[in-house]
Amino acid sequence: MRRTTAVWVWWLCLAACDDGGGASAGRDAAAPGADATTDAAAPDAATDAAAPGADAATDAAPGPDAARPPGCTPAADPGPDVPTRREGRFVRTDAFPSAFLGRPRGLTVYLPAAYDADPQAEFAVLYLHDGQNLFFDEEAAFGRSWHVAETLDALVDAGRVPPLILVGVHNTAARIAEYTPSEDPAHPGSGRAGDYARFLAEELDPWVRFRFRTRCGPASTGVMGSSLGGLVSLDLLRRRPDVFGRAGALSPSLWWNGGEAQGWAPALGDAVAAGARVWVDAGGAEGDALDDGRTSVIGDARALVEALPAGAGVGYLEDPPAFHDEPAWAGRLAHALLHLYGAPSPAVALVPRTFGWPLRRVTAFSVDRWGADGRVRTLRLDEYEASAGELANVDGLLLRPVAAGATALSVRAGGLEAALPLVVAEEVGHPVLFVARAPAGTDAVTLTGSDASFGPWDPAAMPLAPTPGGAFAGTASLPPGARFEYKYTRGSWETVEKAADGSEPANRVFEVREARGRAEDVIPRWRDR
Question: Is residue 156 a contact partner of residue 337, using CB atoms and an 8 Å limit?
Fold first, then answer.
């Protein structure tokens, strides 16, 4: 038997940045050399439109609670001149000032349903960067928001997390400068994360404490963001663990300035040891490809997480088909919130999955086990191969041998057992991950192509699986050196993909040149739609 090192993924399981000018919440941070247009976000503007369905009446924001414990609420209003308006469960402003940053910015504050229902209740606060991309599709940079309010409400209604006050902090034209810890020569003027930390801790947080009923202390104060927003969230935890005790970093830009964030592990580890919680995740379709088949974003994230203390304080998730975009982060948001704020739940399921088709080596195999502490332990094996009669006991999970032909891989853990049907090929091909984004409303996507294992050109050959980020993905095993021509359908030639103008597109082509490959495609439209 041969297998690579197993990587444990701690996963809590359930069931960014237009600033008026169209900047992306993290397109600048997938890897060095990413989209440079994100340097030029327009100043925050035009955020005074009422949210969809919101109450357009202008209400005064809630005032301080006189019964608050001393030291939590400032004695005087830190921002008496900040104009605010109430829109349903949102409180918004377009011009929150900052002496440290030198430019005002918008805020979108989301109040949980319990805020008005229970006038005595106090709530933890979560500050989220790139605030324009959080709540409303029409305000998000690329027309897709994180839908944070809906996700949080669902978790609260299910009793999985407590109600939270969410503070969406809008970015400005200085986003890259404010979200970066040091000046990178490739980005002159960057490295103002220290000023941004002072803005949050010394200007914004006191104002929020005065205006809203909040719980005190780091355990009740969190930060979260994606890409550079993920990087600055980790930076805020290591700079100000006295203020922030929860940090969510989705696809963090750990490449910044030569990967300096890897050196933060001791400070982050100290914060975790003192009770902080950290969430880090990464997608397999973002960043540069590495020689071992991973991407740079996953490689950087693994390196940082593996340097942190093992235990419940650190949450980590790899999402193999996920892009570096808002739908992917929206899809992982529930996991992050559950880790940062969730309560334990009983063991309920054992679910094996694989992304190989057909295969001899089981690639990206994972087993999810919901433990008594409420966390799903996901075992990922980059490769697993067993000869007849061999059994592998990997961290308490019994993997039965994989034989050629139609078979199944069985796993047992914690008194639970499950089996995964497999089609195992005698010849070992190279796994190629196909990730496709389809038009809105698409409920199924199938990959068809020229390889013999596809029929060939069987329009229903390989159904792809939907991903949390809204894409469809699957791994095909293709011969080394093959020139694979392919298209996407919804199961028949009557539903084959078309070009944006409705014309017949040329076959897509993937040349199998490496041991592992990845194809990322966008489907403009379907023949029948």
Answer: no
